[in-house]
User: Which sequence fits this backbone?
DNA sequence: TGACGGTAACTTACCCTGGGGTCACTTTAC
DNA sequence: GTAAAGTGACCCCAGGGTAAGTTACCGTCA
């Protein structure tokens, strides 16, 4: 009989349930930060209880790491591909933005996991997040260097600052985007293109 | 006698101690976020214990509000003054940055309190922070409107996006600055000026 | 000027809730 | 019948918050 009993299996394979939990975890961690997110809330979103979450991911850190790796791998991969294509320095920012928007159109909170400052300062999470950030910063640094060099500027500290500001720009664009679910990746890219053209002539 | 006993008054007037605690609180809240910050740690920084903190500020929210108001009032005041002076749209960003850097040269974490996403979603803190953000956003919106208008662009949604990106830029500049305590407000302003000139010709 | 009382500045030791984490158990699919 | 999917009920501790007590400063009065 299919009476809705609370206890017992619901017939969903582990792999699928895990994917659901990673999606829910990404949203919750992205929204509230590692410190502010609650495991029971993440389980509740999926219609499941905490022990199952722990059975599958071991710990809060385990779940966070799963979310982080999914987001980080997709992101670094997308950016690496775009950067490898090359092009004029002034066109790279828009191309990278387009790649990010496309990659995370249905997963907008993912970006925030890499930049969450509420994770414990030491441990696996901090190390993994720092590693992803390091890789992305390297791309940002490369892009900033190409851009500055093309204008005859070369102060390395300025370039560092620009690279960091760039990640902040991506950050705020994504925050803005999160609040406007109707705007898809294509529209978002077009908007950025229009703005860069208008403000900088890029 | 002045033997160092643990218990009993240390002779510091309430006003002075409160100021110390607000400074320590601002740093700790700014660093770890509302959710991640610990009251006992804030008290410990000042060489005092938790109950005193509670006697003076009532609750974690009370302390946070005190820190937030100090930061928010100084910030909105400084920006309002700068914006009131007026000038070419392209020069305003640098002028505002200069005001912010000068105001917070010895208090670099303060800015983050206004943008902390780990505060409870409802209640006094959320309301106060939202109010400060609203006021700052209004200035950003005004500046963005002037800038876009001077270039013949007027899409209001684009302008909103630019305003939000602007706050993100300030955010990341301050984060970068926090990691470089040797760079003072003047040097920071000069750096931003150089970069804007180089990248955008502003 | 010294004793003294009142109050402000502090602490120790405690309570209590929320949330991470676990154990033993139940049910359904195959 | 067995293994996988899933739960209720529990432990434990960090951290917010409090009660009650201790000490030093300071004004006042003889």
Assistant:
């Amino acid at each position: 009989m299919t009476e809705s009993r609370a206890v017992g299996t619901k017939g969903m394979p582990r792999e699928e349930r895990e994917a659901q939990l990673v999606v829910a975890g990404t949203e919750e961690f992205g929204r509230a930060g590692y410190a502010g997110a609650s495991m029971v809330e993440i389980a509740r979103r999926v219609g499941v209880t905490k022990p199952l979450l722990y059975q599958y991911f071991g710990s809060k850190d385990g779940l966070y790491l799963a979310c982080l790796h999914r987001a980080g791998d997709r992101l670094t991969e997308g950016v690496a591909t775009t950067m490898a294509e090359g092009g004029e320095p002034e066109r790279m920012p828009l191309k990278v933005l387009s790649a990010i928007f496309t990659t995370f159109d249905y997963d907008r909170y993912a970006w925030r996991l890499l930049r969450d400052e509420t994770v414990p300062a030491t441990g696996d999470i901090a190390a993994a997040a720092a590693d992803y950030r390091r890789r992305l910063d390297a791309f940002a640094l490369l892009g900033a260097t190409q851009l500055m060099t093309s204008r005859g500027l070369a102060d390395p500290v300025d370039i560092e600052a620009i690279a960091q500001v760039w990640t902040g720009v991506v950050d705020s664009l994504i925050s803005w985007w999160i609040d406007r679910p109707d705007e898809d990746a294509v529209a978002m890219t077009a908007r950025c293109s229009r703005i860069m053209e208008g403000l900088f002539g890029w």
Summary: The interface with chain A takes residues 31-33, 35-36, 117-118, 147-148, 151, 153, 155, 157-158, 160-162, 164-165, 167-169, 171-173, 175-176, 191, 194-195, 198-200 of chain B (CB under 8 Å).
